[in-house]
Amino acid sequence: MAYATYKSVEVATLHTSLTPCIFDDEPLERDSLSALISDIGYEPIPTGDPEEALRLIRSGRSRLVLASIHMQNSAPFEFLDRALRCDPGVHLIVMTADYTLDNALEAIRRGATDFLPKPVDHARLKRTLDEVAALYDQRRRVRALEEQLLKDLEFHGIVGKSPAMLEVFDFARKVARHYTNVLLVGATGTGKELVARAIHQISPVSQQRLAVCNCSAMVDTLLESQLFGHVRGAFTGATDTRPGLFEYANGGTVFLDEVGETSLPMQAKLLRVIQNREIQRVGSPEIKQVNVRLIAATNRDLRAEVLTGRFREDLFYRLSSIQIRIPSLSERLEDIPLLVQFFLKKYNDAYGKNIAGLTRRTQTLLLQHPWPGNVRELENVISTACITATGDFIDISDLPEHLQHRSPRLANDEDWHPLSLDEVRKHHIQKVLQMCNGNRLRAAQILGIGRTSLYRYLKRDGLDIRPHTHSTGAAA
Ligand SMILES: Nc1ncnc2c1ncn2[C@@H]1O[C@H](COP(=O)(O)OP(=O)(O)OP(=O)(O)O)[C@@H](O)[C@H]1O
Ligand SMILES: [Mg+2]
User: Fold this and answer.
1) Residue 191 CA: which ligand is closest?
2) Which residues does the chain have with pLDDT short of 50?
């Protein structure tokens, strides 16, 4: 029997995960094709119902569909178009009794893998199936290799292969060995906290504690008690005596995020920690000695803040003897595919999905986006798309609205309207808030204004954007 060789174990193992769906409304033809394909070494699922076939595609059960279509129908390619919309990565072999070269080219142009005349030539069918199986297998192997590569290009959970990021890794590695203060400078969402954690992990004090404090999230009094601790009765609500983060991480590292947001009195207290290694709990006369490494981060231009008198010059020099600048994502577009792969793996695992990648047009779109929220924004986009995507691949329709419709290079000119400054401000605040999933603190940071100013504008402009319900862990 001519098909005996196809039944070899190797071929069968290679093919089983393809699970071809045979969609044919002729029961006899469906059965005979089914038998033939089983002989070749696959496990086909035959059906005469187009909706059932689409369900199999959507669920990812069938990666290969053999669809019999009638060219005399009013919309002969409707099934093909719908199937590819369900999953742009599905392989579709169209079979028809009304074969013409024009029809074949049209089907291929629309995305079919092959177009076969009926009755189907067995050798040709086998060749096509083998090609699809080989391609499928090749994709799997490429993915395995990429996963390996990803491991090699990961620096303590930070992914990057651009020269700019490799330089950051290299510098962080060198600096970490010395117990010196470090200033991390970079726009929001570029990974400053990740770098701070990596520096602590590879430092000689990695066994000691790392304390993280977001200086912009608290009013001064609360921040002071958080950092320095307080004694019982120091202020209303201080019902017990508590050590602060400097004591907690004594001998280790304290990461001061958004250090540029601290007030001048708080800056004086930080300077004392650096210069004299001294702290005082709120409400206590006792001076304690601490020895910590300070890693501070900011998305502001601290030198400019010094010039305008908003940041102490002496503290700036003490903090910034070693400065690491983390580049924005738009400066390292070549990291995007790697980051996408990293986040896909993370959210596939988290949501129990098996999304293989992005369609080509989605990849192109991501490379054109300016990414004002940097890697955090990219992570949010991928995590949300992992939830909404139903097929093997994330397509444009799985992206947030503002990404789907914008044409970044033209947007400014084409969308231009003679608006008043008030209207421009309102529109801009609205967009930044949407990008931050309604997180007002983050939006205020990106806008370069204080939270109170943002609230004032929101109130004045009648805006009330609340956080989205399914924001990910990435959106703080
Ligand atoms: N290179 C990277 N590889 C993997 N994940 C990254 C990378 N950069 C950032 N992330 C992820 O993006 C998110 C934001 O990173 P992070 O909090 O370190 O940024 P940040 O610079 O501290 O932002 P902000 O200025 O807003 O505090 C986190 O979920 C982090 O895990
Ligand atoms: Mg941060």
Assistant:
1) 1
2) 1-16, 407-414, 467-476
Structural domain range at position 396: 331-461
Distance 344 CA to ligand 2 centre (A): 22
Residue closest to 170 by CA, chosen among 198, 128, 210: 198
Which residue, 124, 148, 172, sits at the end of a domain? 148
Strands across the sheet containing 293-298:
210-214, 253-257, 293-298, 182-185, 323-325
Between CA 403 and CA 321 the distance in angstroms is 40
For ligand 1, the distance from its centroid to the CA atom of residue 294, given in whole angstroms, is 19
Q: Which tens digit of pLDDT belongs to each residue from 193-211?
A: 999 999 999 999 999 999 9
Type of residue found at 126: K
> Mapping DSSP to helix (H, G, I), strand (E, B) and coil, where does residue 66 land?
strand
pLDDT at 217: 80
Residue 421 tokens read as 């400054």
Whole-angstrom Cα Rg for the chain? 29
Ligand 1 atom with the shortest distance to the CA of 195: 18
Q: Are residues 456 and 337 in the same domain?
A: yes
The number of distinct structural domains making up the chain is: 3
